[in-house]
Amino acid sequence: MTSILVTGGAGYIGSHAVLALLQAGHDVCVIDNLSNGSVVALERVQKLTGKKAAFFQGDIRDPRILRKVLSECRVDSVLHFAGLKAVAESVRDPLSYYENNVNGTLQLCQAMADVGVFRLVFSSSATVYGDPVSVPLSETSPMSLPTNPYGRSKLIVENLLQDLARADKRWRVAILRYFNPIGAHVSGQIGEDPNGIPNNLLPYVTQVAIGRLKFLQVFGDDYPTPDGTGLRDYIHVTDLVAGHICALKVLDSQEGLNVWNLGTGKGHSVLDIIRTFERVSGRSIAFTVAPRRDGDVAKCWADPSKAWRDLGWKADRDLEQMLSDAWRWQLNNPSGYSFSSHGVPG
């Protein structure tokens, strides 16, 4: 029996994908270096599903462990989440982003080809569109140079995969450009647990609400938006991974490389998030306004109609449910998976 390899499968989106794949009846293998993931997430996935994913601790930049996992698990397809993902951090440390995101994917594709695996779903990002001329963004929207090294690393990988699929017709690749994943599994058992100070908005908000952080910094209130704060397309992580399952199925019938946006088609501002979260949680969120961050754009949301036409997929969960589920996760796990869980126990 063949299986699906999930790179970064112990992380936020990866663990939700592992859960969805197991529930759909797939055999799953996970490789993760645990730099921003937790084995506890996989243990909880096992409890929720009654099924276990094979776990290998390792780095996708290591071709030896990649070939070992791909061969031992008899992998048929790969869902590729592993990589670094914070815009502000990428501005401070671009070399790490190119090394992890670009070289990591290069090593993965080479190992896949070495063992004869040619089906790949790649986790890309709306940051590849750069600073949008207009919104919503469709897959054919003009693409300017991304405004930060994170986005540029994703665009380089997209170009790499385009070249690979053109050169070798055995490859079937789905590039999923997604917008801002938030929320958590409805059980409250798995969710987003970043190391250190969160780089993304919602885990910062929930950590302020639970008392781990004193206040939120809102970066910029002078953007050309209705309330001056940045507008983003927030999508529930459960909806997001459902899009990956749909894309995986389409690889059975579609050859070459295809690209889809995964978003809701709606933009919400930072202040929208704060006010809605306060309403659903009953907690006040203290915040201060700071200058804009390098690499951020004013507004960005999706036209997801191509994913509906091609994949039969759309986002079902609204902002209140996203925030309610994220808050349930934080309430159930005030310290996340806990510091000691970011590694192999014992």
Give the structure's gist in a few sentences.
The chain has 346 residues and is of the alpha/beta class. The protein has a single domain, classed as Rossmann fold (3-Layer(aba) Sandwich), CATH 3.40.50.720. It contains 11 helices and 14 strands.
Structure write-up:
With 346 residues, the protein is α/β, with parallel strands linked by helices. The protein has one domain (3-341): Rossmann fold, CATH 3.40.50.720. Helices cover 40% and strands 18% of the residues. The protein is built from eleven helices and 14 strands. It has helices at residues 12-23, 39-49, 63-72, 87-92, 94-115, 149-167, 201-210, 237-250, 270-281, 305-311, 319-332, and strands spanning 3-7, 28-32, 54-57, 75-80, 119-125, 172-178, 180-182, 216-219, 231-232, 234-236, 256-262, 268-269, 287-290, 299-300. A seven-stranded parallel sheet has the order 3-2-1-4-5-6-11, with helices on both faces. Helix 6 links the parallel strand 5 (119-125) and strand 6 (172-178). Helix 7 (201-210) crosses helix 11 (319-332). The chain starts with a strand and ends in a 14-residue tail after the last helix. Mean pLDDT is 95; it is low at 339-346.
Q: What pattern of helices and strands is seen along the backbone?
A: EHEHEHEHHEHEEHEEEHEEHEEHH
Total domain units:
1
Briefly note the CATH topology name: Rossmann fold
Distance between the termini: 32 Å
Number of E-state strands: 14
The main sheet comes to:
7 strands, parallel
DSSP summary: helix tally: 11
Average pLDDT metric:
95
CATH superfamily, called what?
NAD(P)-binding Rossmann-like Domain
CATH architecture: 3-Layer(aba) Sandwich
Instruction: Decide which structural class fits the backbone.
Output: alpha/beta
- Strand residue content: 15-25%
Low-confidence segments, given as residue ranges, are 339-346
Instruction: Report the radius of gyration as a whole number of Å.
Output: 19 Å
How helix-rich are the residues, as a percent range? 25-40%
- CATH class wording: Alpha Beta
In the sheet with the most strands, the strands line up as 3-2-1-4-5-6-11
Instruction: State the shape.
Output: globular
